[in-house]
UniProtKB/TrEMBL annotation, chain A:
Keywords for the protein's UniProt record, in alphabetical order: Ubl conjugation pathway
InterPro entries registered for this protein in UniProt: Ub_conjugating_enzyme (IPR050113), UBC (IPR000608), UBQ-conjugating_enzyme/RWD (IPR016135)
Protein name: Ubiquitin-conjugating enzyme E2 W
CDD domains: UBCc_UBE2W (cd23808)
SUPFAM superfamilies hit by this protein: UBC-like (SSF54495)
A Pfam family the protein falls into: UQ_con
Gene from which the chain derives: UBE2W
Lineage of the organism: Eukaryota, Fungi, Fungi incertae sedis, Mucoromycota, Mortierellomycotina
Record-annotated UBC core domain positions: 1-146
Entries under SMART domains matching the protein: UBCc (SM00212)
TrEMBL record, chain B:
Domain RING-type residues, every copy: 313-369
GO cellular component, one term: Fanconi anaemia nuclear complex
Source species taxonomy: Eukaryota, Fungi, Fungi incertae sedis, Mucoromycota, Mortierellomycotina
Keyword Lyase among UniProt keywords: no
InterPro entries given in the database record: Fancl (IPR026848), FANCL_C (IPR026850), FANCL_d2 (IPR043898), FANCL_d3 (IPR044037), FANCL_d3_sf (IPR043003), UBQ-conjugating_enzyme/RWD (IPR016135), Znf_RING (IPR001841), Znf_RING/FYVE/PHD (IPR013083)
Protein name: RING-type domain-containing protein
One Gene Ontology term from the biological process aspect of the record: interstrand cross-link repair
SMART domains listed in its UniProt record: FANCL_C
Single GO term (MF): ubiquitin protein ligase activity
Keyword Thylakoid among UniProt keywords: no
Pfam families: FANCL_C, FANCL_d2, FANCL_d3
Amino acid sequence: MFARRLSKELKDLAMNPPAGVEVVDANDFKVWKLSLAGAPGTLYEGEKFQLEFNFGPNYPLESPQVLFVGKDVPIHPHIYSNGHICLDVLYNHWSPVQTVASICLSLQSMLSSCTSKERPPDNATYIKTARANPKHTAWAFHDDTV
Amino acid sequence: MDRELEVCIEIASSDSNRSGIESKPEFKTVVQRVLTGNLGCVFGTDELKEILVGSKLQLQQKMLEASDMPSFLIELVDTLEGILSSKSTNIDFQERSVSYWSQIMEQLDALGWEMITDLNADLSKVQIELSDASQRKHMLVVRFPQGFPAVPPTVEPLETPACNSEHSSLSQQLNSNALPFGQQPGLQSVIRHAEKQLEFFKEFWDVMQDIDEHTWVIDPEKPTRADRMRRCALGNHCSIQMNIDPLFPRSMPDTRLFGPANSIDPMRSKLYQNAALWDESKLPRENLEILLELPNGFPSPVNVSKDDINIECGICYSFRFDGQVPDQLCSHSKCQQPFHRVCLYEWLRSIPNTRQSFNTLFGACPYCSETITTTAPKQ
């Protein structure tokens, strides 16, 4: 149903990519890999992270599964070391207005507004109990500052 | 002859003793074992099995002679081509009488070859091109059955609009598929009948052609000669749908306006207030421009680009989805984001704070969060 939408998004990403975002691999409409570069002037300047988007058949009615993959997961109070991201628009604040590009921008701004590089306080327990799909986690969005 | 037949091969090995019908997921249909020989097995569809049913022994012999599977497959293709081409010649030329050929040729000669645009090798299908008084091309297809001339030919009627007025015996006669072949045999009477139809509907097609040339037709995507309905863009997410009566094409058609209520309400009142201005000496498109007070006329391919008219759905990002165009608009005047009914309905249904009353959903527009309503799409 929404292959058309994803192909438009992909075309748009190729035409005017958000700053620091690069499509690494998008051969089908199931899994896309993108790279996200830390913005200059922030704590993450010079770092590059790999993002994985998994689209379900109901995209964009349902949010994609988004996580950081690879060995470099940004050290950030809202990002767990298994790549899971605590960001409301990825879960219960998702709406079809969001796009892959807008998610990347949200992540970019989340990284940029960070003041101290640290893992979430409950990281150790979370990564032991969390399931592979972050959408199965019951998230609590409590901190709007970072 | 181009025909695609799928084949799956299994090279013989010690444990290749499976049998029976197997379903291989990569195949479109259920796969049957067609042939077993010393080199291995050939699987194929029912269609392939049927074609090869008489040649099994011959093919097994060929497999014995072949050095490996690839060279056998070349033999298999040769055999298939042989079988299929002999079948087609059998049907085409041997089962028909001499009078079949002579009669058809006589009729085509009488008709004149310049009208014939396509002809099958066995003369069973003739495509004739006719032009009406406005130089529009129309296609007529005549099929001659095997038993011709004893069995009369069948004529695929011209594409003409359906007339709903039952009083007009003329239109009924013109619309009917029962052509007067019985009384006056011959292609010429078919052509005469078709020409009558072309003359009768000329006015209707003139009106439709004018609409197609001077407006952005949103629906149907590719209008045919039979389509009486047109939905034309008016700009600003509005459109007008009109249903032209083929018998009285210049009279005021049934119209329906689509778009956000605050834009189409003034248009609707203009349409009613100015209805007396309708002038049948003008084309309906010109009349509508006067009634709707469109000083620059309808937006047309000449003055507006396609992207301004085909505003895509805010959810699936496409314009046409399942034949539908995005006609549900956010009523908030600053938003006016269009959606397909099915996309909006599915989205509103999936979020918890949507309310439902009978089949109407009340929820938040995904773009501006103002209340938006939609009804369940027709199944």
